[in-house]
Amino acid sequence: MISAKPKAARHRAKAQPKVQRAHDADLYKERNRIERFFGKLKQFRRAATRYDKLLVNVMGWAKLAAIAMWLK
């Protein structure tokens, strides 16, 4: 038998961290900058697909993409 009254949705309380971990804010900012740079670098198709096998070619393309991003 199906009841006509719908059941209320259950909502779980968000877990609060018991201990705040210490972190280095400057190190976090630098890491964030690097991760954002690689995210932007991947928008260049050639850098994202990694067609080049030689390190010289890859570094040249990475530098060219970085210059293009810097000029924008």
From TrEMBL:
<keyword id="KW-0614">Plasmid</keyword>
<feature type="domain" description="Transposase IS4-like">
    <location>
        <begin position="18"/>
        <end position="69"/>
    </location>
</feature>
<dbReference type="GO" id="GO:0003677">
    <property type="term" value="F:DNA binding"/>
</dbReference>
<keyword id="KW-0472">Membrane</keyword>
<dbReference type="InterPro" id="IPR002559">
    <property type="entry name" value="Transposase_11"/>
</dbReference>
<feature type="transmembrane region" description="Helical">
    <location>
        <begin position="54"/>
        <end position="71"/>
    </location>
</feature>
<keyword id="KW-0812">Transmembrane</keyword>
<feature type="region of interest" description="Disordered">
    <location>
        <begin position="1"/>
        <end position="23"/>
    </location>
</feature>
<dbReference type="Pfam" id="PF01609">
    <property type="entry name" value="DDE_Tnp_1"/>
</dbReference>
<dbReference type="GO" id="GO:0006313">
    <property type="term" value="P:DNA transposition"/>
</dbReference>
<protein>
    <submittedName>
        <fullName>Transposase</fullName>
    </submittedName>
</protein>
<dbReference type="GO" id="GO:0004803">
    <property type="term" value="F:transposase activity"/>
</dbReference>
<keyword id="KW-1133">Transmembrane helix</keyword>
